[in-house]
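Pinned message: reference record for Response regulator
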Amino acid sequence: MPGAPGRVLVVDDNKVIRQLIRVNLELEGLEVVTAADGAECLDVVHQVQPDIVTLDVVMPRLDGLRTAARLRADPRTRHLPLAIISACTQYEVETGLDVGVDAFLAKPFEPAELVQLVKHLIDRRGSGHGGRGGYGGHEAREGRAGHGGREGHGSHDSREGGAPGGGEEGGDRGDGGDGEADGDRASWGPSLPRR
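Predicted structure (tokens):
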């Protein structure tokens, strides 16, 4: 049911980031379960039965992109909305789109951006318009590059094509050091890394 609270599986190796995401989503009435890496995510996803999975890209044992690919390959989880919350390189965005990631949110992010993205994907799933393989597939729509995009959010919904701004050097730090010199973030419309 659109607008109803949902269950979110948050996957990030950084304990502080997991807690930040948890607190902000729980304040909005969402139930949150966390996992420290992709391997743990795959171990618990069938018991948790989340409405959405958020994934960091750089994690030990199993990274976010390989986790997304495995979730898409499993008939029980292939329809789950998947959002990458990370500082991504262009390659990681393209790979994410190829494996079926539904949306991207660049770190650092505003809590309101996180909440809106998660609720948007849950609502789309509940209304039958979001996600993949029965939830609308990959829809490409026009947008503008750079910060702003649709409704001015620092996130990117892959159903609208493109890639988030910024890059990642030496792994995902989660501390705002995502390689973006001017703080410009991804948008829900197409955008390219700005250097």
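Pinned by admin. Summary line: The CA atoms of residues 72 and 127 lie 20 Å apart.
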